[in-house]
Design goal:
Elements (H helix, E strand, L loop, with lengths): L2 H15 L9 E2 L1 H10 L1 H16 L3 H40 L6 H5 L6 E2 L4 H30 L5 H30 L5
Antiparallel strand pairs: 1-2
Helix pairs in contact: 1-2, 2-4, 3-4, 3-7, 4-6, 6-7
């Protein structure tokens, strides 16, 4: 399987969820981010379990169980909930910008607050939004997975468990962002 086939395979879940749309309606980033995160679940679980084995001395079985439960919660529930919250922020920012009659120059300053549903002429806006969304999703993952880990490991010092979850999520999100950045560089993108 070549790289373009893999890229097509990664976009199929988003295409399956979409219906007829107009080119100027924008793109809800959830249809790209969520399937990508679901596809990355197994490597992410293994990476985070590895950090738990190294940092806390957990057995692989225990670390994998905790990471699987935590990542299922954070991916299947946390990601869409954070996206909905960000969509609300985007709507509020959009209404405020419209009421203030903000000119086109403001769109660059407001972009970090408008990453839930992106529009524009360039595919690079989609890549930038994908990368920026990793920050709030990582924070939510740490919060959710920390609660799971503390429940499964009541006998370990809470600060060590929190440190593991934080470090493991930072590593996994750094790798997800690296892949998101490397993909268009390595395989090119004809869209402008």
């Amino acid at each position: 399987m070549n790289a373009r086939s893999i890229g097509l395979l990664l976009t199929l879940p988003a295409l399956a969820l979409s219906s007829a749309c107009w080119a100027d309606t924008g793109l809800p980033m959830l249809v790209l981010v969520w399937p990508s995160y679901i596809l990355a679940l197994i490597p992410v679980i293994v990476i985070e379990a590895y950090v738990g084995v190294r940092k806390l001395g957990l057995s692989w079985r225990v670390a994998l169980r905790i990471c699987t439960v935590g990542n299922l919660w954070s991916t299947l529930l946390g990601v869409p909930m954070v996206w909905l919250l960000l969509l609300g922020v985007e709507m509020a920012v959009g209404v405020a910008a419209y009421s203030l009659k903000a000119d086109a120059g403001w769109q660059y300053l407001l972009f970090p607050f408008q990453i839930a549903w992106v529009g524009g002429e360039s595919v690079w806006i989609v890549y930038a939004a994908f990368v920026l969304l990793a920050f709030p999703f990582c924070a939510a993952s740490i919060w959710i997975e920390r609660k799971v880990a503390l429940r499964y490991l009541p006998d370990l010092p809470a600060e060590r468990v929190r440190s593991w979850v934080r470090d493991a999520n930072i590593w996994s999100y750094v790798l997800l962002v690296a892949v998101a950045i490397a993909y268009p560089i390595a395989f090119g993108n004809d869209a402008t």
